[in-house]
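batch_manifest entry 22 of 60
target: CoA pyrophosphatase
source organism: Stakelama flava
requested by: lab member K.T.
priority: normal
notes from requester: please return tokens only, no post-processing; we will run our own comparison against the previous entry in this batch. if the run fails, retry once and flag.
--- input ---
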Amino acid sequence: MSLFERLSEALGDASPDHVVLLTGDDGDAMLGGDTTLIDAAVLVAVTDRPHPGVILTQRTRHLRNHAGQIAFPGGRKDDSDTDLVAAALREAHEEIALPADQVRIVGLADRYRTITGFQVTPVVGVIPPDLRFRAEPGEVDDVFEVPLDFLLDATNHLEAEVEWQGRNRHYYEIFWDERRIWGATAAMIVNLSRRLSWTP
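--- output ---
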């Protein structure tokens, strides 16, 4: 069975209209019910190799929001984007020069609502191994690959908490090769690991 087929089978049918709030990430509850959420999409690019990996980026340290954090390529859906898949592909091309025609789309995973008012849809796709990426210096400091097995292993999902705006906020963090993956990116990885029935 190909990687694409395995991912398709493992992902199953995810409803694109379903918003998942990660259990314990109670910071999301601070958004009011009448809050208008902003659509965004990220690309979960899985490398087609015997031991697949996932492409992640490290954001530049001078950005106003989420400076230096680890993230999937992606961002806000523009009016010019036909759908969320198009948004994820456009952002991945802008950020790391990943050609859209090199991505075979598997499907959409559960959306994640951030405390900043974004509704983020992970778009899962398979890409050829060893593509050459070029980081957009205004947004991305580094592009790297993390083994898929490592990211989906629940023993690597560490729960943490921090006081924020007068209350304790619970979140996940994942440490790999001296890198700290946390916040919305870690939350989406945890959500994805719960949906994917994956065996190496």
